[in-house]
Amino acid sequence: MSTTPDSASALPTAALPAGLIEVLRAPAICFLTTLMPDGSPQISQTWVDTDGVNIVINTVTTHQKMRNIDRDPRVAVGIADPTSLARSWAVRGRVTSATTDGGTEHIDHLAHKYLGRPYPGFGGGTGAQHRIILTVAADSVHSPRT
Fold first, then answer.
1. What's this model's pTM, rounded to 2 decimal places?
2. What is the tens place of the pLDDT at every residue in 67-93?
3. Angle value at C-alpha 33, between 7 and 14, nearest 5 degrees
4. Which residues contact 115 (CB under 8 A, 6 or more apart)?
5. For residue 109, what is the domain's CATH number?
6. Which domain holds residue 109?
7. DSSP code of 117?
8. Backbone phi, then psi, for 24, in 5-degree steps?
9. For 25, 66, 121, 143, which has the most beta carbons within 10 A of its beta carbon?
């Protein structure tokens, strides 16, 4: 499965700073905020990655954040450097693609990055989960310390 939320990829994007890309390649602290149907924020801690241009997040197709993204692709992502929590970024953007292709392999890659071992299968193992890779294009990037 591969989707692009409606009109999400038509907007201009902001470049991720080199320091943020460096932190995204490390086991960064990350919080993803999506919008509930009533407009209230829903926040989830998540593992994070980058393709060198965008933020990349792996989740489960049945989670609330996916229902929110399917309805409204706008997101906010908070990222902190685990070695220096004062070094952080707030990114406003939108999910420009969502694909299950390679989702299981990607969560295993993230597990090695964050845990130093294969994915332990939280919530019933990867066989019970349908993993999805989200690509987030930044509309704006803010850091109190750049």
1. 0.88
2. 999 999 999 999 999 999 899 999 999
3. 50
4. none
5. 2.30.110.10
6. 2-142
7. S
8. -65, -25
9. 66
